[in-house]
Amino acid sequence: MQITKLAVIGAGTMGASIVMALISNGLKVVLKDTDNIVLENGLKNIDKFLDKKIAKGLSPIKAQAMKNLVTAVTDYKEFADVDIVIEAVSESINIKQKVFQELDEWCNLDTLLLTNTSSLSITQIASFTRRSDKVCGLHFFNPAHIMKLVEIIPGLDTSSETIQSVTQLANLINKVSVKVEECPSFLVNRLLTRYMNEALWCLSDRIYTVEEIDKAAVEIAMPIGPLALRDMNGCDIGLSVASYNFKEYGQRFAYPDLLVKMVDNNLLGKKTDKGFYLYTKDSPKPLGVNENVYTLINQKPQEKLPSSNIPLSIRLMLPMINEAFLVIQEKICKLESIDLALKTGLGMKLGPLELANNIGLTTCLNYLEELANFYGERFRPAYYLRKLVYANKTKVI
Questions:
Q1: Does the annotation mark 139 as catalytic?
Q2: Pick the CATH number of 187-261+301-397 from 2.70.70.10, 1.10.287.110, 1.10.1040.50, 3.40.50.300
């Protein structure tokens, strides 16, 4: 497919960042939003991205040439000759339905319609059009112009030609692409949610402190601790993702009511200067732990919990590791794509399968069984892990 002109729907933070990823590679882009103020802010964000590139050595002339590739609009008149549209509106199925129905009316029959949804059904979104074979998920990671990973998620009717063209686009903009079969939250966010939830349980159950949890995660694999990351992304967003995955996957994705209390008390993280840590607008780094979090935790009666010698760093990773084995069982992606996606998308030093190899498959299984005896479904070992242990395998790959 010849790709010369694209459109991005939604001029918010992610939309502007996607535009930046496209124009950085010489592609013409139509940026559309219904709100003029949001559109203007999107263009200002693109200017900021370009200013940072200039500070790093990009010539102002080249920066201006990149900016000239963007056409900002509030209607669909420019969409007649667009090759690919990337939708980056709010994560609401009702809003996406309206957008895709409009795109289906205005775009050429050959135009591919891609969605940047991080969790919603590609097949359902495709059903809003009369071209379900030309609809596909292309999930960027924030910030899209910097993060190298994209997940390519076909819907039930997405054609092989569409998948090839989306892969071609990913290569054109220098992204590492991983093809993922459709499932709630796809690959990276599905595994990330299990780890993020476990961090909340370890805190809510008064087993470990905020600082101990974040320190342990960084020591074993992560670039930032799970509670600091929750503050960065926003506890309200975290609650939305957690509740969606619980609805779709059931009890193993259960999360403690601490997250609900955080949102109810407006402890959302950096956006409100208070989350698991305290912040100020002038300082990007946390000022210290927010002691009010412990007040919320102590409102719940102390439960008697089993003693365990499982290291905190490993316990935090076990749900993610176990979910990776479930992904293998379900044939969600190629086995070798799992660690690649998690390391590229999250900045992990080691992927979940590499961690499983290092810990030992038998040890992982024993730890999961020990925890499952008390906590139940949250730690039920994946059968694929059992099979590897039964076969005396010492490595996943």
A1: yes
A2: 1.10.1040.50
